[in-house]
Amino acid sequence: MEPKKFTYPKAEKLKSRTTIGLLFTDGKSVSKYPLRLVYMPTEEADADGPIKMGVSVSKKYFKKAHDRNYFKRVLRETYRLNKHILTDKLDKPYSLMFFYQAKDRLSYEEINAKTIQLFEKFLLQEGLQESNL
């Protein structure tokens, strides 16, 4: 059994403006307050891995760049540590955009717990995981 790699390599970063635009027009979303995940399966033959991920924090809620940067760092870190929840179950490549959408300043632990719940909700919505009910 191969050990889990807790990395966020450059190949997993979502940078394509066209893909990001398609996510906003055609993507589906799932939310777990204060986080939101917009996603879309990708059919790219050159997909480097199962996931392309981007993060965003609204200027509407955090006016100062250092506040937005802090929450983007936290979102990237929680994704990096919990992406195995997604990669273990995904059977095709996905493009994901991860948002923090609240004025509330949650702690790292709370955001991490919400991220796990959000990823599980995403897998349920895509039919890749059984319900725990």
Automatic annotation (TrEMBL):
Keywords: Endonuclease, Hydrolase, Nuclease, RNA-binding, tRNA processing. It catalyses: Endonucleolytic cleavage of RNA, removing 5'-extranucleotides from tRNA precursor. One of its GO terms (biological process) is tRNA 5'-leader removal. GO terms for cellular component: ribonuclease P complex. The keyword tRNA processing applies. PROSITE patterns: RIBONUCLEASE_P. GO terms for molecular function: 3'-tRNA processing endoribonuclease activity; ribonuclease P activity; tRNA binding. SUPFAM superfamilies: Ribosomal protein S5 domain 2-like. It comes from the Bacteria. Its EC number is 3.1.26.5. Belongs to the RnpA family. Consists of a catalytic RNA component (M1 or rnpB) and a protein subunit. RNaseP catalyzes the removal of the 5'-leader sequence from pre-tRNA to produce the mature 5'-terminus. It can also cleave other RNA substrates such as 4.5S RNA. The protein component plays an auxiliary but essential role in vivo by binding to the 5'-leader sequence and broadening the substrate specificity of the ribozyme. PANTHER family: RIBONUCLEASE P PROTEIN COMPONENT. This is Ribonuclease P protein component. It comes from Flavobacterium rivuli WB 3.3-2 = DSM 21788.
